[in-house]
Amino acid sequence: MAAAIIPVTPAMNASSLSVSECETIEPSVLSATFFIRRKEYSVYLDAEKLVWERTKSKNDRNSVLIENILAIKSQVRKSSSVSETQQNSHSSVETDTPSNIKQFTIFYAKRVENSSNPNKWRNLSQTFQNNDIQVCQLWIQTLQRQISEQVARPRRLLLFVNPYGGKKRALQIYDGIVKPIFQLAGIDATTIISQRSNQIRDFIMTQSLEHFDGIVCIGGDGTFSELFNGFIFRTLKDLGYDDITNVDEMPKINDKQLIPLGCIPAGSTDTVAYCLNGTCDVRTIALNIALGQVNGLDLSSVSNQNGRLLKFYASVMSYGFLGDVAIESEKFRWMGPSRYDYSGFKKLLLNRGYDGEVSLLVDSFANDPLKGPECLENCPVCETTDEPNQMTVIKNTTEIIDDKCNNHERVNAIDDENQPAIHIDIHVMNAKNNTKENTDQCQYVKTINGKFFMVNGANISCACPRSPNGFSKFCHLCDGYIDLILVRHTSFLNNLRFLLAMSSGRNCKITDLNHVEIYRTKKFSFKPTGIQTGASTFNLHSSRVPISNSNDTKHSSVWNCDGEVVLDSDISIRSHRRLINVYRRGMFNAQKDAVVNKSEANIPCCC
């Protein structure tokens, strides 16, 4: 028989192959009978999945995708006097002698069924027994080859552990959950325990990273921010950009050349980890990393009033209430995560408003931030490769170019002192035909003046266990847009309603509140009005903005950037699509799961 890929059918199963055929043929389909817990099962393997079905009961059927198999280990089958529990234990004797192999165990990840959170996964194992040594040898070789072909899986990881974040359980999380999973998957992890602020950034900025397939941190949002800021600035530095004074001139970074970054939650809120995986379950996220579940992620850049790039953020940039909470909570770090509740309650009672001017780029190509779809696993919005915006912005023009943009007059909409004034100053033309046609494709800058309780630029939905819907439920991870949430300064009760809607989202959503507005934009800027702010200097070798000596009067605030404080008030923010690759599977997609289950139901019987 010639060496070729030959399907193994029920009429010619693996047990009928000769030794020479087992060594030369790489079958596209394998079918054989194995014993699982002393019961006979028909087992089927192709390039995508492994299925095992009870021979005498069609209701007992299980399957796992090859991409979800962590490892396979061959074992010597013990005598029948040995208990079944001992046979399936990890203490089973392993051997390098193929002639002794009569069983093997697969270790795989599976989504937790009938769970309150369908995004949770668990690592399981299953042992297959067969007295035919040739059959076991063929199946082991085929499975090992298929696992080795999962090229996205990391083999060498650089792992940072922040033992001081959140409830200070990062070391326990690593030793008890993460390390065993990585060892099972055959991952060589170089572990560094951080002892000071910016140590992670300093290491990434100065050390060689070429030997690593990915970089992961165990910590909170601030730890992950330090990681990806160090990584991006290191990449820019390698490209010859030590200091960027215009973010629009930042070089294009090829996302396929960037090694993936990962965040295992061990912080106070863990917003980023929750949005990337739909859960803060450590075991689930460790499995996603071990299996090489990689996708892109937008980052947003922050520049000061002089245009100098300060840093990037992944979750939210918030001015006002959350900024005050961030800077106030620094005094109470000894309280752990409870410091945010305490500081938040104090600031809520003050009910401060902050005068400012927001300018945002309105883009008719953007999806409606108040409507779906949600960003789920294999999101079609995030997977599009083309840039939706084909418009050219014309600044300071006085010519009417697009009728839909109405006219170039300054439009003031002021109902009372708390109602922001809205100005439209910039018009556009269609970049392709340079005419007034296609009036649906309109892009312009809207300027809003007013008094705000909060100004939030959400790079992701910002959902977390304490706020299931986050700031913007329909915000996407990789679409190149920011959701700008403006919360006007009104009454204490309205602010309380807003916070309650954020925490529950059951009886009331923030979009139902009259004093909340949500815009989807590629970039926006903010500057406080009625106060004087001092300018800070920027140092590329620091991921945090230095404290500046300012003459701010009361009722000025600071920015909360991924849980860290940025003291520059006058800033510009821009979204950068797919700036980094991250380990994430995405939120559970019920429709996709139904399609997978339906396809598995159509698998032909292998007995």
Summarize the structure.
With 607 residues, the chain is α+β, with helices and mostly antiparallel strands. It has 13 helices and 23 strands.
Please tell me about this protein's structure.
By secondary structure, the protein is of the alpha+beta class. The chain folds into 3 domains: 14-150, Pleckstrin-homology domain (PH domain)/Phosphotyrosine-binding domain (PTB) (PH-domain like, Roll), CATH 2.30.29; 156-299, Rossmann fold (3-Layer(aba) Sandwich); 317-547 and 554-573, Tumour Suppressor Smad4. It has helices spanning 19-24, 84-88, 133-148, 170-184, 199-206, 221-238, 271-277, 282-290, 321-329, 338-350, 380-383, 492-503, 590-601; strands at 30-36, 39-45, 49-54, 61-65, 69-76, 101-111, 121-129, 156-161, 188-193, 214-219, 261-265, 294-304, 309-313, 316-320, 354-363, 391-394, 421-430, 443-458, 482-488, 516-528, 559-561, 564-566, 571-583. The strands form 4 sheets. Strands 12, 13, 14, 15, 16, 17, 18, 19, 20, 21, 22 and 23 form a 12-stranded antiparallel beta sheet that branches. A 4-stranded antiparallel beta sheet has the order 1-2-3-4, with no helix packed on it. Strands 9-8-10-11 form a 4-stranded parallel beta sheet, sandwiched between helices. Strand 10, helix 6 and strand 11 (261-265) form a beta-alpha-beta unit. Helix 4 (170-184) packs parallel to helix 8 (282-290), helix 5 (199-206) runs parallel beside helix 6 (221-238) and helix 9 (321-329) crosses helix 10 (338-350). The longest helix is centred in the middle third of the chain and has 18 residues, at 221-238. The protein is elongated, with a radius of gyration of 28 Å. It starts with 18 loop residues before the first helix and ends in a 6-residue tail after the last helix.
